[in-house]
Amino acid sequence: MPIQNIPEKNTIFFVWLNHYAGILLKTPTKTIVIDPVDVKPRQLANTDAILITHEHYDHLDQRLITETQKNTGCQVIADLASAKSLKNTLPPEKIQNAYPGTEIKIGEVSVKVEKCQHPAQNPVTYIITSEDGVKIFHTADSQPYPEMVQIAEKEKLDLVFCTVGIAPGATPETGFEIARLTKPQVAVPYHTNSPAEQKQFADILKTKMPRTACLIPEQNKIYQVTKRR
Ligand SMILES: [Zn+2]
After folding, report:
1. If pLDDT is split at 50, 70 and 90, which confidence band does 168 have?
2. Measured in angstroms, how far is the CA atom of residue 156 from the centroid of ligand 1?
3. Which of 70, 110, 130, 162 is deepest in the core (most CB within 10 A)?
């Protein structure tokens, strides 16, 4: 269901939508959905923007995006391969290409596009900064990569999503490596259908980075994160 409440200042809400990288984010003014698959269009009512990271089936559902765009009039921001195929079914003026180094505004919310280490055509990751400065790094199903350190130093991330399974080479250890490189206030293990993998991630994090909070999400529940002071 769409989130009815509005987050307070300096706070965002998020919902994990599926076993993969599907995330719904709500800031005080905007609702942004990343990589929605396996969800009903009515869950995406009130969407202001959809962000797509790459063309794989667990990230790009062309039918769902097309229907949601029609229902809501939302903007769609997508990696080049996904954008190319979305242009067949969406009004072209509603699609923006995302490639690393670009920044796109959704009202007062900023979306910066970064690289993604994953075997897809032109995969990307996204840093979303809310109008109050809450910083979220949606890493799609990327493997850790060295530039994550510079990104984190520059951005001072509040919330980072870390892939712990399903994708090639992804394990609780590589998920932890993302947390280690990006040093967020809150790390979230996702892209898995195994609670055991999430627990392993949490255990490693607790041992090696005791000051970083681990939030193990359940699907379709609302979580809130407040900007670090
Ligand atoms: Zn994936």
Report:
1. confident
2. 25
3. 162
CA dihedral 76→78→81→87, nearest 10 degrees, is 10
**Which residues keep their CB under 5 angstroms from ion ligand 1?**
20, 58, 141
The CA radius of gyration of the chain, in Å to the nearest whole number, is 16
Q: Residues 139-162: what's their mean pLDDT?
A: 96
Element at 13 (helix H, strand E): strand 11-16
Element (H, E) at 80: helix 80-86
- 126 bridge partner residues: 113, 138
Q: What is the 53 CA–ligand 1 centroid distance (Å)?
A: 9
Q: If you measure from the C-alpha of residue 220 to the centroid of ligand 1, how many angstroms do you get, rounded to a whole number?
A: 18
Going from the Cα of 4 to the center of ligand 1, the distance in angstroms, rounded, reads 28
pLDDT digit string, tens, across residues 19-41 = 999 999 999 999 999 999 999 99
Residue 52 contacts residue 35 (beta carbons within 8 Å) = yes
Contact 168, 157 (CB under 8 A): no
Cα–Cα distance for residue pair 60/62, rounded to 1 Å: 6
Quick one: pLDDT band at residue 167, thresholds 50, 70, 90? confident
Q: What is the pLDDT of residue 189?
A: 97
How far does the centroid of ligand 1 lie from the alpha carbon of residue 174, in Å? 14
Residue-range domains of the chain with CATH: 11-226 (3.60.15.10)
